[in-house]
Amino acid sequence: MPAILLYAVTSLLYAALGLYFWRTRWTGGGGTSGGSARAGIVSWERAAILAPLVLHSYLLYTSLFAAAELHFGFSQAMSVTLWLTALIYWIESLIYDVKGMQALVLPLAAVCALLPAFFPGPETPAYTQAFAFRVHLLVAMLAYSLFTIAALHATLMTVLERRLHGGKNSLPSGESLAGPWASLPPLMTLEALLFRIITLGFVLLSLTLISGFVFSEELFGQPARVNHKTVFGIISWIIFAALLVGRYRRGWRGRIALRWTLAGFAALLLAYVGSMFVLEVILGRV
Question: Global pTM?
Answer without folding.
Answer: 0.74
